[in-house]
UniProtKB/TrEMBL annotation:
InterPro entries hit by this protein: DUF4094, Glyco_trans_31
Record's protein name: Hexosyltransferase
Keywords: Glycosyltransferase, Golgi apparatus, Manganese, Membrane, Signal-anchor, Transferase, Transmembrane, Transmembrane helix
EC primary class: transferase
């Protein structure tokens, strides 16, 4: 039944049609829907990204992640301090490991040292290194018996005093020599006989020769570090006067230094002329003609710490040798973290130079003549130098090691 004009629609139809929504309300509803959509969409994309960043950070720095987990978010101020402490601990551990590796390598070297042979001629594999403060090797030659006697009569103790010095003070002194080109020949027998009487030699597995001094130096340090566990190792020539008390007192000041190289540092010219006394065949490696060597200790006397001697022993096969022994030694330490100590008391002149210094209270460690690379006519003059510049025979027994 249709309603006629002017009649009201039935009540049920009115309820179904409802009331029309205003246009402003529809616009507001649309805008709200849009903003809610953006908010929901943003949360969906940011959350996975944050998770990925957290995972990446955990992989990049696990130590920081562990510390954060340990202390919690409320204690972030201590994290940086803990990281610094951890870093310091790791550095300390690295140094300890490095030291142990060095000792292990030295121990391995000691097993092959020629002087560690037992009575039956076999090598001792369970050898314990002898403890010492310093080992002083006096470089000598087959023809230098009179020089050795002049040293024994002046600054080097003999016999029971030499043994007592080693036992009470940890000061080991030996004349250092290799063997002749014909082992067992007359030259070697002469040294064997002298050693039987004096007991103050260290024999090296080395063929003696003036042009082999760099090799002898390398073998010397490799040998002594395999026999004695010392704080320092010294090389000195047999025509140089030494005041042992002053030497030991000076070395003791550097006892805490791990890598120290002590001597009279110089930088002499690189001689390219053939026939010159100190001719350097590899002069071209040092730049243009007329250049000078890098700083290194003069060869008459120098001292190195245990770590440096161990370094020479471990790397002996690949350490390059130049014509001059002192240059070779200096080159082995170039590029290493080594403290070079330039001590001019290790290169005083002979009287009157060292005599004036002694009278002024500045006793020299070593004295020699530059013009002779040692004391000129040392056999005749060593006693005079000792009387004029010596510290007194009792000085060595009063030093602390």
């Amino acid at each position: 039944m249709k309603a006629t004009v002017g009649e009201r629609p039935p009540q049920s139809e009115k309820k179904l049609r409802g009331r029309a929504m205003p246009a402003k309300a529809i616009m507001v509803l649309c805008m709200l829907s849009f903003f809610f959509g953006l908010l929901f969409s943003g949360s969906m994309w940011v959350t996975p990204l944050q998770k990925k960043e957290e995972a990446a950070n955990a992989l990049i720095d696990p130590k920081l992640s562990l510390i954060t987990h340990r202390f919690g978010e409320g204690d972030q101020r201590d994290i940086i301090g803990e990281v610094a402490k951890t870093h310091q601990a790791i550095q300390s551990l690295d140094k300890t490991i490095s030291a142990l590796e060095m000792e292990l390598a030295v121990a391995r070297t000691s097993q092959t040292a020629t002087s560690s042979s037992s009575l039956d001629g076999s090598l001792s594999t369970n050898k314990v290194l002898k403890k010492a403060f310093v080992v002083i090797g006096i470089n000598t030659a087959f023809s230098s018996k009179k020089r050795r006697e002049s040293v024994r009569e002046t600054w080097m103790p003999r016999g029971s005093k030499l043994k007592r010095l080693e036992q009470e003070k940890g000061i080991v002194i030996r004349f250092v020599i290799g063997h002749s080109a014909t082992p067992g020949g007359v030259l070697d027998r002469a040294i064997d006989g002298e050693d039987t009487e004096t007991k103050d030699f260290l024999r090296l597995d080395h063929v003696e020769g003036y042009h082999e001094l760099s090799m002898k130096t390398k073998i010397y340090f490799s040998t002594v570090v395999a026999i004695w566990d010392a704080d320092f190792y010294v090389k000195v020539d047999d025509d140089v006067h030494v005041n042992l008390g002053m030497l030991i007192t000076t070395l003791a000041r550097y006892r805490t230094k791990p890598r120290v190289y002590i001597g009279c540092m110089k930088s002499g010219p690189v001689l390219s002329q053939k026939g010159a006394r100190y001719h350097e065949p590899e002069f071209w490696k040092f730049g243009e003609e007329g250049n000078r060597y890098f700083r290194h200790a003069t060869g008459q006397i120098y001292a190195i710490s245990k770590d440096l001697a161990a370094y020479i022993s471990i790397n002996a096969p690949i350490l390059h040798r130049y014509a001059n022994e002192d240059v070779s030694l200096g080159s082995w330490f170039i590029g290493l973290d080594v403290e070079h100590v330039n001590d001019k008391s290790m290169c005083c002149g002979t009287p009157p130079d060292c005599e004036w210094k002694t009278q002024a209270g500045n006793v020299c460690i070593a004295s020699f003549d530059w013009s002779c690379s040692g004391i000129c006519k040392s056999v005749e003059r060593m006693k005079d130098v000792h009387n004029s510049c010596g510290e007194g025979d009792g000085a060595i027994w009063n030093v602390l090691t």
